Amino acid sequence: MAPHESAEHVIGAMLSDILEDIGVDNGQLLVPPGTDNGTVRETVIVDAEDEAPVQRGSLVLLIGVRGRAALPGIRKLIPDYPAAVAVKGNEEDLDAVREVLFPTGIGLIAVSPAMNWGTLESIAKNRIQEPALSTDASTIIHRDLFAIAQTTATLANGHVVIEDPANRVLAYSPASNDVDELRRLSILARRGPERYQKLLKESGVYKHLQAAEAPIHMEANPTEGLRERVAIGIHAGNRILGYIWLQEGKEPLARNTDKLMVGAARHAAIELVRHRNEQSQALRRDRISSLLSGTPQIHSQAQSAGIDPSKPAALVLISAQGDDETAAGLQLRRGELANVASIHAAAYRPGAVVGAIGLEIAMILPDLDPIKSPPAINRLINVIVRDARVHLHCQVQAAVGPVVERLDALHGTLEHVRSVLKVLESTPSIHVASYADVETTVLTKELLELLASRTDLRHGGISLLCDKYPEFATTLLTYLEFFGDVNRCAEELAVHRNTVHYRLRRACEVAGIDLHSAEQRLLAHLQLRLWTHSEGRH
Question: Which value, in Å, is the radius of gyration of the alpha carbons in the chain?
Fold first, then answer.
C-alpha cells in the first residue's frame, strides 16, 4: 500500500465533488457511501495483494485487478471502513462487487479502463487538499449570490441581504431610499451592527433560523427604526451556511414571500456549497447536459447531485424572447430567467436542477408522484412564467414534459418537449403547455416536415396545381379546411359560391384528383398544408 496523502493539513472533500471533477466518462458511482462516510480525507493506492490496513475516510484506488477479480481485495478492505473503493471496470463487470459493498456503507466507483490511476489520484488530491476558494471562484459566488438577492427582492417586493454565519454581508439587492437604518448600516459596514445583532439574538431569532428551514417574520419596530422583516437560514444538512434577510419596501411584501424565501435559501445553499468546494470555473460541470445525456453515467451524476435516479422525474424547457437580441442581451436574459426558475424550483423540490441547454433554460424536477405531481408542476411553471414576464419584461413560454418512471428515461422526452416549445413560439398567446395540450399540432408539424423531406411522397398533379394555379389551390385547401362547406368557403374567401364551385372543378381537373375519394382528399389536404407552410401563406 502506498499512501499519498499526509494527515497533516488535510481538509477533506465530499466524494460527490471528487466524482464531479473526475467526470462522468471516467468514473461512475455504483454504490453511494453511507451518510456518515461521504467525506474523503486521503487517497491511497492499494495493490490487490497488499495486506496493510487503510484509514477510515480513505478513497482506495485498488490497482492490479479489474471487475469481479477485485472481490478478494475488497473483502480485505471492508473491516477498515474506507469511504470508497475505486476499481476499473464497467457496471456489469462490477455487479458482484456492488452486491458485496452495498450493505457496508462503503462506496464503489467504477473507473474507466482508459483512466490513468495517477491522474485520478491527482484530481482527488487537489480536491481534498484544496485550501480555499480561488479569486475567480470567489468572484463567481459573489456574482451568483448578488443575482439571488436581486431576484428574490424583485419577486417579493422588498430588499434583501445575504449574510454568512458570522453575520458578514455576502450580497444584497440594490438599495433605494426606502431602506431602514439596519439595512443601510449593514451594507456600509459589510456586517450587521452589534447592537442589532444582540437584539436579535436575545429575541431568539437566530436560534429559530439555525434550527429549521422555515421563514420567521418580525414586525416593524419604529422605536428602533426597523421595518417589517422576514428571515430564513441557509442550511446544508445540519450545517448553517448563512442567513437571508428580506426587508419590506414601499409596497407590501408578496403573498408568496415565504415560499420565495425557502426557494432563495435552498438556491443559495447550492451555490455556497458548490463554490466552496470548487477550485475554478473550469471545474464546473453542466449537470443538465449530463442528466439528459442518455448514458449510463446519468446514475453517478444524479447521485452526486443528491437525486435518486430510480424515482420519477419530469423535464421543463423555458424560453424568453425580448427586444435585445444581442449576444450579451440574450445571455443576460437567460441568466435572469434561470435565477427566477431556480428559486421557485428549489422551493418546490430541493433536488431540482436548473441550467441552460442551448438557448433555453431547462429544469429537471426529481422525486415526483406520477399522479399528483403534474397539476402541481403546471401551477409551479405558470408562476415562474408569470413572474418572469412581469419582472424581466419579455415574452416567456414554457413546455412541460411528461412524468417518466425513472430519471434515466428523461432524455427520451427532450425532443418532444422541444417540439412543444416550437409550437408555442408560433402561438404567443399560449404561455405554458404540455405535450398532451399540443400533441396534434406537434404530430402534424412533424408529419409535414417528413413530407417536405420526401419528394417521392408528393402527388405530381397537386404539386402542379400549387405551382401554376395558386388561387385554385387556396380555394381547394379552404374547402377542405371547412369540411366541404361551400358557403363557409365562399364567405372566408369573399367570393360567390358559384366561383367556389368553378375553382374546385378546375383544381380537380388540373391536379387529376377526385374529391369523392377519401384517400385523395387526405393526400391533397396534407400536401396543400405543406405548400402553405413552405410558402408562408396563411
Answer: 30
Average pLDDT, the chain: 82
* 303 contacts 317 by C-beta, under 8 angstroms: no
CA angle 345-350-354, nearest 5°? 45
Q: How far is CA 219 from the centre of its chain?
A: 36
Tens-place pLDDT, residues 287-301: 788 788 877 778 777
Q: How far does CA 423 lie from the centroid of its chain?
A: 21
State how far the alpha carbon of 522 is from the alpha carbons of 453, 454, 455, 468, in Å: 18, 17, 17, 21
Axis-axis angle for helices 460-468, 470-481 (nearest 10): 120
- C-alpha–C-alpha distance, residues 287 and 293, integer Å: 10
- Say which amino acid occupies 458: R
φ, ψ at 337 (rounded to 5°): -65, -40
Q: Can you list the positions of beta strands (E) in 403-498?
A: 432-434
Predicted model pTM: 0.55
* Backbone region of residue 345 per phi and psi (left: phi > 0; alpha: psi in -120 to 50; beta: other values): alpha
Spatial distance between the Cα atoms of 130 and 38, rounded to a whole number of angstroms:
17
C-alpha cell at 168: 458578514
Q: Quote the CA–CA distance of 478 and 500 in Å, as a whole number.
A: 10
Q: Mean of the pLDDT values across residues 278-286?
A: 39
Query: Do the bridges between strand 169-172 and strand 216-218 make them parallel or antiparallel, or are there none, so unpaired?
Result: unpaired
Q: Determine the Cα–Cα distance for residues 458 and 71; give it in Å rounded to an integer.
A: 63
Nearest residue to 442 via CA among 424, 465, 419: 419
Q: What is the pLDDT of residues 57-93, one digit of tens each?
A: 899 999 889 999 999 999 999 999 999 999 999 888 9
Q: Give the distance between the most distant pair of CA atoms in the chain.
A: 99
pLDDT 10s digits, 500-514: 999 999 999 999 999
CB 247 within 8 A of CB 221: no
Q: What is the pLDDT, as a whole number, of residue 448?
A: 81
Contacts of residue 448, Cβ cutoff 8 Å, sequence gap at least 6: 526, 529, 530, 533
